[in-house]
């Protein structure tokens, strides 16, 4: 299977402090992959780089046949500002902004698609509710509805089920399965290993450097997890620029 996203000797960081070192590999087209690892392992940083929001310090992210409009990116809930005075249906319709353009009116067909997406995530009847008045789980459902409408080939989810109740998680996992069934490429940062084992066939175990990447059964072994923990214990948060590969 060809790779939708290929990473080549990728090094990422902030103000030249590396957060991900020398990562090479690919997310196969249509694959469903969990990215796991200790706190501070660089998981969110990797998703930001794939989405195009963060420029690599070194190496490259190559998107095969995909442009920015083919990517849907769900940041961690804490990074989303909900104080904006907008209701649920307009939030969902923003998922279409790239296709419709900012100045064209939203037609009835689009509105029906938005309502269908809301029904799929269990939010029918919430169309006119301001987003500030949704629970965390309802808001996450709304963001999934927006991604359904976006119709993206590559879907990046950063801790989509953190602080979300079991029922909402089950409903949103069904949406992830649907995307997988439609051969979209899905990459999700997750912390719950049981959930990963049950629902995600591929896993990248990251501890700033890749510890293992492949089938979940081969990646999430106790030896690999112990290695990732040991690597996390030796991190120096004030480490300087990465010098590996430099003369
Ligand atoms: N905007 C930023 N500016 C500076 N450093 C950052 C920034 N964002 C992340 N970092 C640092 O980069 C490293 C990796 O962070 P990242 O958030 O990617 O890890 P993570 O694996 O997603 O962690 P968690 O599981 O805690 O969410 C950490 O040392 C973090 O402090």
From TrEMBL:
<dbReference type="InterPro" id="IPR050153">
    <property type="entry name" value="Metal_Ion_Import_ABC"/>
</dbReference>
<comment type="similarity">
    <text>Belongs to the ABC transporter superfamily.</text>
</comment>
<dbReference type="InterPro" id="IPR027417">
    <property type="entry name" value="P-loop_NTPase"/>
</dbReference>
<keyword id="KW-0862">Zinc</keyword>
<keyword id="KW-0067">ATP-binding</keyword>
<feature type="domain" description="ABC transporter">
    <location>
        <begin position="5"/>
        <end position="233"/>
    </location>
</feature>
<dbReference type="Pfam" id="PF00005">
    <property type="entry name" value="ABC_tran"/>
</dbReference>
<keyword id="KW-0406">Ion transport</keyword>
<dbReference type="GO" id="GO:0005524">
    <property type="term" value="F:ATP binding"/>
</dbReference>
<dbReference type="InterPro" id="IPR003439">
    <property type="entry name" value="ABC_transporter-like_ATP-bd"/>
</dbReference>
<dbReference type="InterPro" id="IPR017871">
    <property type="entry name" value="ABC_transporter-like_CS"/>
</dbReference>
<keyword id="KW-0813">Transport</keyword>
<keyword id="KW-0547">Nucleotide-binding</keyword>
<dbReference type="InterPro" id="IPR003593">
    <property type="entry name" value="AAA+_ATPase"/>
</dbReference>
<protein>
    <submittedName>
        <fullName>Zinc/manganese transport system ATP-binding protein</fullName>
    </submittedName>
</protein>
<keyword id="KW-0864">Zinc transport</keyword>
């Amino acid at each position: 299977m060809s790779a939708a996203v290929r990473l080549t000797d990728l090094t990422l960081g902030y103000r030249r402090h590396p957060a991900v070192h020398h990562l090479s590999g690919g997310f196969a087209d249509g694959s469903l992959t969990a990215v796991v690892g200790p706190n501070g392992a660089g998981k969110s940083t990797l998703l930001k780089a794939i989405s195009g929001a963060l420029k690599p310090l070194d190496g490259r992210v190559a998107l095969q046949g995909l442009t920015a409009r083919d990517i849907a990116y769900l940041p961690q809930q804490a990074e989303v500002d909900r104080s904006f005075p907008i209701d649920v249906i307009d939030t969902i319709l923003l998922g279409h902004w790239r296709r419709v353009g900012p100045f064209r009116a939203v037609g009835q067909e689009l509105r029906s698609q938005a309502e269908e997406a809301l029904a799929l995530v269990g939010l029918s009847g919430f169309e006119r509710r301001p987003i500030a008045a949704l629970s965390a789980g309802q808001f996450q459902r709304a963001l999934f509805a927006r991604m359904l409408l976006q119709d993206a080939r590559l879907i990046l989810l950063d801790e989509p089920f953190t602080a979300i109740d079991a029922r909402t998680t089950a409903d949103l996992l069904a949406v992830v399965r649907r995307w997988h069934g439609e051969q979209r490429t899905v990459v999700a940062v997750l912390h719950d290993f049981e959930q990963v084992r049950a629902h995600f066939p591929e896993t990248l175990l990251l501890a700033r450097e890749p510890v293992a990447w492949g089938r979940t059964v081969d990646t999430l072994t106790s030896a690999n997890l112990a290695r990732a923990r040991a690597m996390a214990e030796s991190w120096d948060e004030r480490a300087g620029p990465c010098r590996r590969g430099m003369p």
